[in-house]
Amino acid sequence: MPEIIDVVEALLFASDTPVEASRIQEVLDLESPAVARELVESLRGRLDAEGRALQVMEVGGGFRLVTRPEVAPWLVKLARSRTRSRLSRPSLETLAIIGYRQPVSRPEVDSIRGVNSDAVLENLLERRMIRIAGRKESPGRPFLYETTREFLVAFGLRDLGDLPRVEGELIVPELAEAAAAQLTEPEHEETAAAADPTEQDPGSGGDRVTASS
Fold first, then answer.
1. pLDDT value at 145 more than 70
2. Which residues make Cβ contacts (< 8 Å) with residue 52, sequence separation at least 6?
3. How many angstroms separate the CA atoms of 154 and 99, rounded?
4. Label partner for 77 (CA 20 to 30 A): which of 28, 38, 89, 116?
């Protein structure tokens, strides 16, 4: 009968998605997720000690068996022979917008990119890199999009907090213009009132405001 640590290795190897500690606990009937995490750490130590080509990585809220950087050159050669298409520049651009602003609607993505993003969003949905998170409470009630666990796994992120920090903010042009208009509107009204000689001074008891020379 295999040792329990060997079973943990088999679980991580067989799964095409990260395996949470709670899932390992459930499958192996362990006392708690903490015990499952200890087993994973033991497996990590054994792989490191033996100098194996595989290592345990925590990503997307769970654990995966991944290859070490040292074997990357051979994996690159293998990847070149695959016919699976890579993410295009528009897809990466759209993913970045969704990753940093999620949940975000298609009109917002379109405003930032400056082009229609329907086809790109459909492609990312098919690849399970994004998902529909609901609808926005605005005219037309457009869908809201957010990234998925597959997104985290593809980019080697444990969670969204691992996203690189960027300077500034992704601003939706229409929203920025509307905000600027709201901020400047009272100022325009005050200026117009001050320039109108027929406007009454609230504190003058009904006297007309006269222009001083």
1. yes
2. 68
3. 13
4. 89
